[in-house]
Amino acid sequence: MLELVNISKRFKQKYAVKSMNMLIERGEIVGLLGPNGAGKSTAISIMSSLVEPTEGEVYFKGQSILKKPEPLRKIAGIVPQEIALYTDLTAEENLQFFGRIYQLKGAKLKERIDDVLQTIGLTDRRKEVVKKFSGGMKRRLNIGVALLHEPELIVMDEPTVGIDAQSRNYILETVKRLNAEKNVTILYTSHYMEEVEFLCDRIYIMDKGNLIAAGTKEEISRILSGEKTIVIEANRLTDQFIHELKVHPLINSMNASDKQITIMVAKEVNMFTDLIKLAEECSLELCSVHIKTPTLEDVFLHLTGRALRD
Using CB atoms within 10 A of its CB, is residue 108 exposed (0-12), middle (13-18) or buried (19+)? Predict the structure, then answer.
């Protein structure tokens, strides 16, 4: 449905996206992950026909959108990361305004507004001014705007940022339902790995403008099939202990927070004795040492050196 071929975007001498290849098939939910500054927003702007690449080509159903973007724009819905609503208008008035931009009018516009309000769960709040809405309600209306013209493709750029758990779950279930019931193709970016695991058929991972991994969840998880994850918890972590783990020859990667360290080692390595010895040498009291199978979050950390929310 949508294909990026050797896409690069350069700002002066710096590449925001470099030699990116990506394929989105009809009916898929595809996840695009990367830490802040990875190039996700630039890539989305290019594939939405909002920004032209410095090099490369974007095809929609086999036709170049750089030469002729209108076919893509007619069937694409964009859910931006920032709330794009008029807060002094009601939910219904916002949908009327954006519906007219989509060239909807009359009975058709009313029908689409009623359907969208039901889909996003705001039918009983249609007459309320948006500035009185909670963050989750604004996010849902933001999605509703993108659904008005019954798009075949929806690009969702971190649609659950800064909202409560109930609204977040509602949005995730709505995305699933749109894909399952209406066969809507969705490109989804998020800072929450559990969202991507729940929603996406395939995943692309970006870092520093480059695509560094692509595949199904199972294929990407197999990147670390020969390793295991060890989670170490302590009441406090000392700089000396962290340093000793960083330079340890058997540890492949490490991520430290206030009271927890996650390390990755080869599956056959037994680190328990070494960890106890290092903790004693650093006068550190361990609370727990837990071994688990690597997750998608572990793969992301291994590939980028940063947690997804960094």
Answer: exposed
